[in-house]
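Intended use. Records like the one below are meant for learning the mapping from a protein sequence to its folded structure. Do not use them to infer anything beyond what is encoded.
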Amino acid sequence: MKKVTLLLIFLVFFFMSTVEAHNNPGSIIIKDNVDLKISGAGFGNDSFDFELKYHFNEHDPGNLYWKMDLSTFKFSDSVANFSGSGIQNTRPFTVFKPWEVQWDAKGSSFSIYLHTASGSIEKILASQREPGSGSSYYPNTGDFYLGIISNGDWDISVVYIED
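Structure written out for the chain above:
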């Protein structure tokens, strides 16, 4: 059991550092049967979701084996997710193909400003004077961060979309 715990800790730290290097808030979900659900694993300019199924190997007493379930392998559409309240800047993120920002705002005033990595304002993506949700398409690629001005709680997702 100690070996399994150490391996899982290693996998979580390795995966999360890989995900951060690709500007994606990926996650690992460890299921009751020790299967691993991986979201947002980065490789090159792409992000993937998949599951690793725990595999019992009767010939190895350590028994630390997982097999990728190819039926769960898919491109991830998630780039970044942010939650907060009030006025904040998000962490930077990188997009490689057309994308959109999706939001749900609880306050009576809410705006999203798209900033380039250098800090200049690229575009106003959202401006609303009542609570609600919406989305805004943006086809350009690059390194960005979002400036949020709100008087309430908000949730934001940046996702890839089909061109």
